[in-house]
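quick one before i forget lol
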Amino acid sequence: MTKPMKNKVLKMPSFKSESAEADWWASPAGRAYVKRKSADARSKGAKASGSSVVAQLNEKRSIQIAIRLPGADLAQAREIAHRKGIGYQTLLKMLVREGLARESRRGIRPKFLLLIP
C-alpha cells in the first residue's frame, strides 16, 4: 500500500549571487518548485504562462534568419541555456537584444561617420 504524499511546502531560498540563483533554478529543487507552483496555479484555474521575457521574445513579429556561429560559441550557448532552463535560440535572442540595447545607450557614432564634417 502506498502512502499518500504530504503536501510539502516548497520555499524559494534567498541567494547570495545571480549565479547561485541560476544554479538553483536549474537544479531538481528549482524545477520541482516551478512544477509545483504551476500545478497550484492550474488547480486554481489560472492559465499557465512562462517568463514574460521569453514570451516577448517568442512573439510572432520576429523574422527568421540564418546565422553562422563558431562551433565553440554554439556549444557554450547551449550549455548556458541548459543551465538556465531555456532554449539556446531563446538565449541567443536575449543576448542579441541586450547587446543592441547596450550599444544604443552608448550613442557612439561609427568611425566612418567621424570623418564626415
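fyi Residues 88-106 form the longest helix (19 residues).
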